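Why do we care about 3D structure at all? Because function follows from shape, and shape follows, mostly, from sequence. That is the central idea of this module. The next example makes it concrete: a single protein chain, its amino acid sequence, and then its structure expressed as tokens.
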Amino acid sequence: SAASDVYKRQVYSSILTVSGYLFPFITFPYVTRVLGVENFGICSFYDSILTYFTLISMMGMSTLGIREIASCKGDKDKLCSVFSSLFSLNLIATVIALLLMLGSALFVNKFQEHPQMMLIGAAKLLANFFMIEWFFRGIEEFQYVTVRSILVRAVYVVSVFIFVRQSEDYLLYFLLTALMFVVNAAINMLYVRRFVTLTFSNIRITNYIRPFIVFGAYQILTSMYTSFNVAYLGFVSSDTEVGYYSSSVKLFNILLSFYTAFTGVLLPRMSSLYHSGDLNGFNKLLLLSFKVLVFIVFPIIILSEFYAPEIVTIMSGSSFGGAVLPMRIIMPLLLIIGIEQILVYQILIPQNKDQKVFVNSIVGGLIGVIANLILVKELGSSGSAVVWLLSEVCVLTMSYYFTFSIIKGIPILRIIIKRIIYSIPLIFFLAFLKAEYSGVISFIVSCLVVACYYFIIEMTVDKKSTISILLPKNLRRNTKDC
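And the structure:
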């Protein structure tokens, strides 16, 4: 049934998204300990630089591609035409990005310190273009994408443990990461022939240029308080500070993945519901998204704030103690960014509110640049964390303003306040436990206590608990007719 298909897609998307962070979760403690803070910081710096050229290459394709491909499923001729047009537009942008990257490698002194990193980055950039992941997400081929990604990532993990053995192997580690993209791209280009035929004879890119640029500008401006933080920190501070901040961000992204897994599958579904006029189904999934968000992020935020030193030591090693404060600063972003994802990716984008998305990005980008210039040079990695937090708060405020007329009937504030009230006894208990006991054992005990506490609250206090909603049979009922 349609509801059953929705649930399967959600499961595969969840597995895919979580695996994207689970495999780094496996390698991360090993890599940080082997490479050390400085060399890990070097890899993070060049990866942040590569992110900018990738943004120029892909612009808004990850969002535009999913939306446009999802809109023409069932029509093979239209699907081929749209795919070929989007692919051609993406190709033009990728050529421009490669030329800019080559020019930067030749004329920017900082990049000349490790020219091999820039060369490997160029290969990764090109492979990312051929990944065409937006196409498979658009046609909701989550099973294929999930299986392929897990297999390739498993090979990558094994390769890291085999070949990266000492701190001087940071270049090899960077190369293995790029090769993962190359292999994924090669498999995708072979598999895509089952669905479409690429042709350059009947392409129409004019209609896609504006949203391609708008969504791309949104991604680039958003990066002014995410990826730019790492790049700017690398220019005005040390590789060690970059290592601290990157470590805290990596841990944050791993934790955020548990919610991103849920929202990733809903973009094509929400777009389909809105354009078909099913506002009841649209609002139902919107409310479900908010409930799932607070259900997932509150226990994670509370545990991370209390046990940031233990988490950093377990994941990165004792040499990364400087990552503790940045981690504590950015952990509230789990809730802030989670709400943003709902407002932007489940409301504004499905409704083609491109201009409002662009305004969001301008506000966040300006705040990010200004705050970076003021805070980062003096505060280092902690300053970068504050910049990110401030920028996301501003973006959330704008997003809420733009979507207020749609979400005013959804009790978001009540959901959050109720969760805060539920959490007060737990916070006092954890404060007592942390004061009396410390270390890994205390952390493990606290994780078990938190899990049990929220499970009991959900099953006994809430009339309709999120746990029960997420059970397969109930999730199918909630997504019925979607």
